[in-house]
Write a structure and sequence with these properties.
Layout: H1 4-13, H2 36-58, H3 65-72, H4 76-82, H5 86-111, H6 115-132, H7 134-142, H8 149-163, H9 178-198, H10 209-221, H11 223-230
Helix pairs in contact: 2-3, 2-5, 2-7, 5-6, 5-8, 6-10, 7-9, 9-10, 10-11
């Protein structure tokens, strides 16, 4: 599993992990020695952070460009130099943040010894990242529908990327369509996230790992085999050495 410090870096990369007015990213007034591209990149990051917090607090429909700029400590002219409007900034924050999540999931999946473990570890990565930045989870999952058609297209693209983790599913019985089954599983996971985040329980997301792992594997392996594959492997301290069983033990 990824070291705790490395997972923390992933969380920091999510928009909304910091406040837009983070003093560490302040740009002093007057002539700046920083290259223009560095200044623009810093202002963009601050605006994305400001947008996430503003949208999470007020909702997409009620968040204004002025609110976002105020939260970021960036002027409106600078905002419009970087984005065409609120929707453009929202989609930029969503794409950046979900890209971080998908890449972390893919890394966890690739490091696992088999498909079943890979699904569980990919889910673990996703749940931990979203739980670590509740404002981003609210903005990206709950408020996405409020954006309208562009938001729905963004969600469809995200779910398509999520489906890639099921490319190795075992063969299903005749007449059962694997693609439809994967769609149902992916949609079910997303809906579960929506309910938990929408209820204000984002920090509890990691607790869903056993349930969601079983939910993802059971349709393809059967409940009993899926549970067996997900059962923790006893460590050295838990293993019973031959000849040391208690009399009458099972």
């Amino acid at each position: 599993m990824k070291p705790e410090s490395a997972r923390s870096v992933d969380v920091v990369l999510l928009p909304g992990a910091r406040t837009g007015r983070d003093p560490a990213r302040s740009i002093k007034r007057g002539p700046s020695r920083l290259p223009p591209d560095v200044v623009a990149a810093t202002q963009r990051e601050r605006l994305l952070d400001g947008l996430v917090h503003t949208v999470a607090q007020h909702g997409y429909q009620h968040a204004t460009v002025s609110d976002i700029c105020r939260a970021a400590g960036v002027t409106r002219p600078v905002f419009y130099e970087l984005f065409t409007g609120k929707e453009d900034a929202f989609l930029a924050a969503h794409r950046h943040g979900t890209g971080v999540v998908i890449r972390r999931m893919a890394a966890a999946f690739a490091a696992a010894p088999d498909w079943c473990t890979g699904i569980r570890e990919a889910l673990r990565a996703m749940l931990e990242l979203l739980a670590g930045v509740p404002a981003f989870a609210t903005m990206a999952v709950i408020e996405l529908d409020a954006v309208g058609p562009a938001g729905r297209r963004e969600r469809d693209q995200l779910l398509t990327r999520f489906r890639a983790f099921f490319a190795e599913v075992p063969q299903l019985p005749s007449g059962v369509l694997a693609e439809t089954m994967v769609d149902a599983v992916v949609g079910g996971v997303y809906n579960t996230l929506q309910r938990c985040i929408g209820a204000g329980r984002t920090e509890e997301l990691p607790r869903l790992l056993p349930t969601l792992s079983l939910f993802c594997l059971a349709p393809f392996l059967g409940p009993e085999e899926a549970a067996r594959r997900l059962a923790p492997v006893p460590g050295p301290a838990e293993a019973v050495e031959p000849g040391t069983e208690e009399p009458g033990g099972r």
